[in-house]
Amino acid sequence: MTEPLLSVENLQTHFRTPDGVNRAVDGITFHVNAGETVAIVGESGCGKSVTSMSILRLIPEPPGKIAGAIKFEGRDLLKLSDKEMRKIRGNSISMIFQEPMTSLNPVLTVGRQIGETLRLHQGMSASDAEKKAIEMLELVGIPEPGRRVKEYPHQLSGGMRQRVMIAIALACNPKLLIADEPTTALDVTIQAQILDLMRDLKRRVGAAIVLITHDLGVVAEVAERVIVMYAGRKVEEAPVGKLFANPRHPYTRGLLGSVPKLGSSLTGHEERLAEIPGLVPSLKKKIDGCVFAGRCAEATDLCRAVAPALETKGPEHVAACHYALKEAAAA
Amino acid sequence: MSTAPVVLEVSDLKKHFPLRGGLLGTTKGYVYAVDGVSFSIRRGETLSLVGESGCGKSTVGKSVLRLFPLTAGQVVLDGKRIDDMPASSLRALRRKMQVVFQDPFSSLNPRMRVRDIIAEPILNFGLAKDSADVDRRVAKALDTVRLPTDAAGRWPHEFSGGQRQRIGIARALAAEPEVIICDEAVSALDVSVKAQVVNLLQDLQKELGLAMLFISHDLAIVEHMTHRVAVMYLGKIVEVAEKKSLFGQPRHPYTEALLSAVPVPDPTAKRDRIVLQGDVPSPIRPPSGCRFHTRCPYVMPRCKTEEPLLKPDATGHLAACHLHDLPEAENPLLHKTGATAFRAA
């Protein structure tokens, strides 16, 4: 088997706070192959964004503390100096953030912001960078790129700003693109445009994508493999088709059951939404057993005492649950 | 369908915000936020108002609540016209119409205990006989939203987003309203918590027979919990229908595109997506004719000049689109199997 593009091994990102250590990410392991789209899903506070920020080492240390290994093309990013890390950010790994409003600089033209990465990483001259910026704007489907390149972020709509963010991220032909909730702040019709664009660009540019999202609809549309996170840990991982058809972890099942599907009034599936009772546990307390035990209807004393390891439940399908295997045998 | 009495009736509601500029602050133009909206809600019924940001759905909610004066139109609550009522007599009627806001963090006063937050409407409207009665009512409101009674003595910051939203709902219910306006009341919540609050709202409606105006951009949630849907685009309602009719066979191109754009949590679903080009035009200079003509995939010359009116079909499904004046065989909307995107699933 070929070496994966990115492999994250036992990543732990903890934050020291006045009232204890917050284990935002508590030992997560996964890999991303070249050209693949992997989605990380979970609810607020499950550690999905902290995972992505840790990969790019955007976590301030202290109060944060990152442990484990993040191997990108064979090099451990956690061992690089700040200078070496700067060469990777925005060059071979780049990131799209959720808020296109706040992640662009309001006092610089769009063209300068796209050109900045090109001049920094590829040593382009100002005029070459502007030419390339116009090309990038055309690539992401902005009409009249020659005029738009001289405009400021406030002159663009939300959807266009997100396109600019994508143009900046793709300017240096990254091998890995991390998209943190790229469409959450957008309206559905604009979201459809951006998802279409991301799919199309992936075909043309061939970058691997790590998509961080809470929207299972978006996951079903763009991801090939899905990682489900809960309270800082990975609870399930599977190819997208398998995860939706045959979720093994009770949390994943609860998550899928709590989203109404469009068309429910036509197909007669108008049952009550499945609720996951209770709340996400505090990450400041060390949890001995399964992180989900407190909200799981099937939890036993074993679940509360012993943390389940990630076990293979099927081809490419892993889940951390003591009881998932039994069910697989029965099915 | 329902023969229950109409609780809230809105007709030809308009709200134009003046744009001021220059040295003397003269009016330079208007934002046509809501431009002629009519609907009614019966007892025990949910009407959802859907649309994208800036379509005016929240402005409708706030206008109905009379959080600001209207430009034109009528609002009738329980048989009484409230849009031109002086503030002093309106006060008593406000009890009948309560609101739940989107953000559970900023809509509760952090310096008030939960008891005082919920007691505020009770005291304002003089609903309680004495302070023991206030406590009894607060406990009842907390019980209705499935929060423990000891929550009354705690502060808002001690609760999670979903629990705070329950406190917000308890506050609205404490006034014993007839109409509840939910302005994106579940949008800020996480999926599993959202399901809890959606189920709660549905149960409460059945238990208390409330009329609900549910303002949301989330079509899947809307379909799950509403009876009727009104779709707004640039300050106007473009389509109103019973849920099944609207989701099964949308009769406006915008609704059709909106439904097809929603990502479906099912990787095997076949999609026939209509991706609208461009952005929503500015409500300061709305397009002539049909406001959707700049993005409509079926635009005809007539759409650019003549504004379509909201007209019913045989089943009472209202839509504002010139396509319905064409012979049925030529109407592209009726020939697709409606929202094909999820029919396959």
TrEMBL record, chain A:
One GO cellular component from the entry?
plasma membrane
Quote the subcellular location field of this record. Answer: Cell inner membrane
Identify one Pfam family in the record: oligo_HPY
Q: Indicate yes or no for the key word ATP-binding.
A: yes
Write down the PROSITE patterns for this protein, in alphabetical order: ABC_TRANSPORTER_1, ABC_TRANSPORTER_2
Q: What is its main location?
A: membrane
How is the protein disposed in the membrane?
Peripheral membrane protein
Pinpoint the ABC transporter domain residues.
6-256
GO-annotated biological processes: peptide transport; transmembrane transport
Q: Name one GO molecular function term.
A: ATP binding
- Keywords of this entry: ATP-binding, Cell membrane, Membrane, Nucleotide-binding, Transport
What family does the entry list?
Belongs to the ABC transporter superfamily.
Q: What is this protein called?
A: ABC transporter ATP-binding protein
TrEMBL record, chain B:
Query: InterPro entries under this entry?
Result: AAA+_ATPase (IPR003593), ABC_transp_ATP-bind (IPR050319), ABC_transporter-like_ATP-bd (IPR003439), ABC_transporter-like_CS (IPR017871), Oligopep_ABC_C (IPR013563), P-loop_NTPase (IPR027417)
Q: Which SUPFAM superfamilies match?
A: P-loop containing nucleoside triphosphate hydrolases (SSF52540)
Q: Which GO terms describe its biological process?
A: peptide transport; transmembrane transport
Q: How does the record say this protein sits in the membrane?
A: Peripheral membrane protein
- Cellular component aspect of the GO annotation: plasma membrane
What is its subcellular localisation? Cell inner membrane
* Domain of life from the UniProt record: Bacteria
Which PROSITE patterns does the record match to this protein?
A: ABC_TRANSPORTER_1, ABC_TRANSPORTER_2
Q: Which residues form the ABC transporter domain?
A: 8-259
Q: Extract the SMART domains matched here.
A: AAA
Q: Which UniProt keywords apply?
A: ATP-binding, Nucleotide-binding, Transport
* Key word ATP-binding present: yes
The keyword ATP-binding is assigned to this record = yes
Entry's Gene Ontology molecular function annotations: ATP binding; ATP hydrolysis activity
Pfam families listed in its UniProt record:
ABC_tran (PF00005), oligo_HPY (PF08352)
Q: Which PANTHER family match?
A: D,D-DIPEPTIDE TRANSPORT ATP-BINDING PROTEIN DDPF-RELATED, TRANSPORT ATP-BINDING PROTEIN
Q: Spell out the family assignment given in the record's similarity comment.
A: Belongs to the ABC transporter superfamily.
This chain's protein is named: ATP-binding cassette domain-containing protein
Taxonomy of origin reads:
Bacteria, Pseudomonadati, Pseudomonadota, Alphaproteobacteria, Acetobacterales
